[in-house]
Amino acid sequence: MLVLVVAVVVAACGPVRPTVAEWENDWDAIVALIPDESSLGTDPEALCEATLVSLRDQKETLFPAPDDLIAGSVRQWLEVAEGMFFECPPSDGFSDSYDQLEILEAEIEAGVNSIDG
């Protein structure tokens, strides 16, 4: 009976959240996957495909986030990044997507700073 109670308590706790420092290593690695807009050139399909595959392979390392405060913004960032490299080039061009990523990165950074500091 005691084993059952312990198992239920452990399961209820959910996944262990990483520290901000641990999570930031994964975040920095994913952000580094995004190529500079200028490197996309006039025929970006191969680079888009490679970036999309890398994003999808590594995105699960970002969850759980260290705090729910940033989790939503991280999901939005991933949606924008995956969308722009899936649609390649996006119907509204890459500039708008890069602008959205920059805004979301600033939100995430502010959230990380408030958690960490």
Helicity level: 55-70%
End-to-end Cα distance: 42 Å
Low-pLDDT regions: none
Percent of residues in β-strands: under 5%
| Average predicted confidence as pLDDT | 90
How is the main sheet built?
none
Shape: elongated
Count of DSSP helices?
A: 5
Query: SS-based structural class?
Result: mainly alpha
Task: Tell me the total number of β-strands.
Answer: 0
The topology string of helices and strands comes to HHHHH
As a whole number of angstroms, the C-alpha radius of gyration is: 17 Å
Description:
This protein has helices spanning 2-13, 20-31, 45-58, 68-87, 94-116. The mean pLDDT is 90. It has 117 residues and is mostly helical.
Summary?
The chain contains five helices and no strands. It is mainly alpha-helical and 117 residues long. It starts with a helix and ends with a helix.
Keywords:
117 residues, single chain, mainly alpha
Write the layout of secondary structure elements.
Blueprint: H1 2-13, H2 20-31, H3 45-58, H4 68-87, H5 94-116
